[in-house]
Amino acid sequence: xxxxxxxxxxxxxxxxxxxxxxxxxxxxxxxxxxxxxxxxxxxxxxxxxxxxxxxxxxxxxxxxxxxxxxxxxxxxxxxxxxxxxxxxxxxxxxxxxxxxxxxxxxxxxxxxxxxxxxxxxxxxxxxxxxxxxxxxxxxxxxxxxxxxxxxxxxxxxxxxxxxxxxxxxxxxxxxxxxxxxxxxxxxxxxxxxxxxxxxxxxxxxxxxxxxxxxxxxxxxxxxxxxxxxxxxxxxxxxxxxxxxxxxxxxxxxxxxxxxxxxxxxxxxxxxxxxxxxxxxxxxxxxxxxxxxxxxxxxxxxxxxxxxxxxxxxxxxxxxxxxxxxxxxxxxxxxxxxxxxxxxxxxxxxxxxxxxxxxxxxxxxxxxxxxxxxxxxxxxxxxxxxxxxxxxxxxx
Amino acid sequence: xxxxxxxxxxxxxxxxxxxxxxxxxxxxxxxxxxxxxxxxxxxxxxxxxxxxxxxxxxxxxxxxxxxxxxxxxxxxxxxxxxxxxxxxxxxxxxxxxxxxxxxxxxxxxxxxxxxxxxxxxxxxxxxxxxxxxxxxxxxxxxxxxxxxxxxxxxxxxxxxxxxxxxxxxxxxxxxxxxxxxxxxxxxxxxxxxxxxxxxxxxxxxxxxxxxxxxxxxxxxxxxxxxxxxxxxxxxxxxxxxxxxxxxxxxxxxxxxxxxxxxxxxxxxxxxxxxxxxxxxxxxxxxxxxxxxxxxxxxxxxxxxxxxxxxxxxxxxxxxxxxxxxxxxxxxxxxxxxxxxxxxxxxxxxxxxxxxxxxxxxxxxxxxxxxxxxxxxxxxxxxxxxxxxxxxxxxx
Lengths: 395, 395
Fold this sequence. Notes:
Two copies of one chain form a homodimer.
Chain A: E1 4-11, E2 14-21, E3 24-28, E4 30-32, H1 45-50, E5 56-59, H2 60-65, H3 69-74, H4 78-82, E6 88-91, H5 94-99, E7 104-107, E8 110-114, E9 121-124, H6 126-136, E10 140-142, H7 154-174, E11 182-187, H8 193-204, E12 210-213, H9 222-232, E13 242-244, H10 250-258, E14 263-265, H11 268-274, E15 277-280, E16 283-286, H12 317-325, H13 329-356, H14 359-369
Parallel strand pairs in A: 4-14, 5-6, 6-10, 10-11, 11-12, 12-13, 13-14
Antiparallel strand pairs in A: 1-2, 2-3, 7-8, 8-9, 15-16
Helix pairs in contact in A: 6-7, 7-8, 8-9, 11-13, 12-13, 13-14
């Protein structure tokens, strides 16, 4: 197998592992910062590494449109092109089937996108998507899937899954492994338990190098997202990495880790940063609020990002408030570096807690410390206080 | 004197010095990156230091509007507020008399601005401006001056200078020195030689800690700007720093250094970066041009910025082209760090050349290497090839 997952410790279903890829080791559970076009918005790849990232996610659809796969291949592949020498996972374009639904047409053979840039047609087939990713030399390639909208009825979800499964077979057959990386299958099935369970089992038969839970973060309630994780994760092969796509808030990550998920990605830390929402160990902080105007404290005294770290260049909440209110580019950059560091530190804490046998304590501590309301309207950072992340809920 | 200038070496009128300020030493000739609102756009103060900056320029007018001097004072001054622990120079608002001419009214007592943010009135007087800067604790404060527009007739330029001189006297009298920094006077007089010469001599009588040449970079032809420097700089006291405000291109800096100027500031490297214009040792590079699409080379192989420095995170012209074409925030950040580093390295080269006695060679080398056209339409990076920077031109 091209990707080796070594499980170093467990806590219930949660596991702390090392995923060996052609471009380095991913310590799991891991968060993959999103560099849609090859770089996290506002962040130099050197700074991304300094923040503690071990793997970057990039997007095949966007890269195929611009600069194009041919260009990336001629420049030596995606690692050489982006200046990110570590592991890279590319999304297949399946999420764009959902997010760009007015610009695409799905048939049994694949997806035809109309470029959001110039209207030109771009054909994605299961085989083509595999080939694109192999030519870019990515460490983890994703199969083309159909990410259905929310809500959808069970019959349509089942039809959609049949097509995605067929695409998965074709992708698996087309995969040559010549780039040295691995290919992941994607479980769909909306929030229908029988469908998700069948999907997980069917996919597991195909011999993928890892498995993803897709079709979440598409507008579904938290409870449905969690149910999908609880139904699906245990049925995915335990010797291979499990990846929950596009999720999410720290509390969702904590929940999914407790159910055996190893990999995560989300635009949330970077996007929220650009809107002035900063993550801290005590909950979120809206830096534009007037109460921060003269607050000399760093955003989070326990954070090691360039803005929070003690030393001559530490910056205050007051300064970030000022820059954000002024609409300065600097505000977006500093906030992004902060939120990324927060997420990456959070994953490091999770890994350590699994190793030390204190994972339950960690979940409790997050729920308690951030009880000021995170995300807004929810009781805390961690899980609802009535739930135990180590006990899968009944459904 | 609160500011000590030690001249370590000279080459004709050019000098290599050390300017000791309350917050550290400025190695001169120095370029001061512009952090109008307290930070260079897109750059963390730690990165600014890493790029080699020893002093930052900030803007009193903008800071007085937002967040306000009271706030900055309560937060411990401008250094604590911005996370920039090194020397800071603040512009007085005099340039905004020029650049915001529809929003201000000048009388003999001072300037009344109408805030560009909310229309509220803000009164700047010579004494008030000194007090603002002392309260912020800056290392180098500038007097309030009237920066006249271009072109202007000699009589109006002379009237304007009389007012600016009177303001300079009042500022000098108001200056307490309690912040430990120094106060600079500003020579005006448009491009009229008798006026500039008289202004320099009159100002030199007032005992300022340094002297600036203002009223340039307001739309005048290159030749006029150079003439102003050549007339004025030699008349300013040699034992104190000389500062050419708002200038400019590397060739202009080289010219002014040759005439004894020590300090420079300009938004050019950062603003041009945001528009995809990158400085290199071989001239400027418009990164959006199609010819860079598949160019695997760094922007400048001799540059030490995060993007150009050899190593695993080096990024290519092709990648910067891609990010710039895509309108990514990352493009602005990477390009700004590059251009700042270019300017700061350029100043370091100038300092070394003066010390080693090779300043003339440096000027020649720049003129030759960048002869591909920099800035557009001009013969090169350095001076016009018919001129010798060490020989003041006749006028």
